[in-house]
Amino acid sequence: MFAIDTNLLVYAHNTDSEFHKQAAAFVTKVVNERDHKGQHTICLPTQVLSEFMHVVTWQRVEKPLSIVEAIRVVRDYRDVGALLHERISKVLKWCRLSG
Known about the structure:
The chain is mostly helical. The protein has one domain (2-98). The chain has five helices and two strands. The chain has a two-stranded parallel ribbon with strand order 1-2. Helix 1 packs across helix 2 (20-32), helix 3 packs antiparallel against helix 4 (67-79) and helix 4 runs antiparallel to helix 5 (88-98).
C-alpha cells in the first residue's frame, strides 16, 4: 500500500494545472485498483486530506475550489473507501467549521 501525496491530489482536482490530466488519470486509476484480496492499494492519510482542503481552496491556486466542492471531493474519496484513518470525520467537521 502507498499513500497519495497532497500535490498529486491538488493537481488532479485543479483543472487549470499543467499537470491536471496526468494527475487526474493516475489518481482515478489507483483509487479504483484493488489487490488480490480486494483491498485498496493506496490510502489517503488524514494529514494529506487536510492539506488538500487548505491548498485547493486557496485563492492563489490557478482555479480554487469552493469549500463545498472541496468537501465533496473528500467525501467522494471517503465513499470509495480510500481513506487511511477513521479520523476523516474530524477533517469533514473542520471543513464545516471553516466554511
